[in-house]
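Hypothesis: this fold can be encoded by more than one sequence.
Test: take the structure tokens below, design a sequence, compare later.
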């Protein structure tokens, strides 16, 4: 866990040192359908965020995961609130960010080895804008607890 936290802060520090760019904006509304990969399954979901200041975005996200085989089946629904800090970099069309998810992991399954509960998950990522209102998004996240590990989600962000 300490190694993951170190990598998170190292990546954030490197991104901050790069310079300045402006794709994210105060008042912007960002909708991102997403799909990913983690230690257990392929999460699918959607996130929605609003630019609160020039660098801070607040939003909500819902991810759904399911996995199993002929002996068992599991499903997880993960609604969360998100807070992003968008870094100013000198790379055209790039919008790097870091932040935290606070949410609830709602677990259902055939075997009782996992349980529902709150989670806190740090993340780093970036959007790359192909047009002023459309970007590719990739987010690397870390989790601890019942479903600990690292994973990523990617998608297309639409500024609406």
């Amino acid at each position: 866990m300490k190694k993951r936290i170190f990598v998170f802060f190292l990546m954030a520090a490197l991104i901050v040192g790069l310079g300045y760019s402006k794709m994210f904006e105060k008042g912007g509304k960002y909708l991102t359908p997403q799909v990913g990969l983690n230690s257990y399954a392929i999460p699918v979901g959607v996130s929605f965020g609003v630019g609160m200041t020039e660098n801070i975005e607040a939003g909500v996200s819902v991810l759904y995961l399911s996995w199993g085989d002929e002996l068992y089946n599991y499903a997880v629904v993960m609604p969360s609130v998100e807070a992003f800090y968008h870094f100013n970099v000198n790379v055209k069309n790039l919008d790097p960010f870091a932040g935290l998810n606070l949410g609830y992991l709602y677990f259902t399954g055939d075997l009782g080895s996992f349980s529902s509960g709150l989670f806190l998950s740090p993340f780093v990522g970036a959007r790359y804008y192909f047009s002023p209102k459309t970007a590719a998004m990739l987010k690397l996240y870390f989790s601890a607890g019942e479903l600990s590990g690292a994973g990523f989600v990617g998608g297309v962000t639409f500024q609406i």
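The domain at 2-159 is CATH 2.40.160.20 (Porin). The chain has one domain: 2-159.
Hypothesis status: open.
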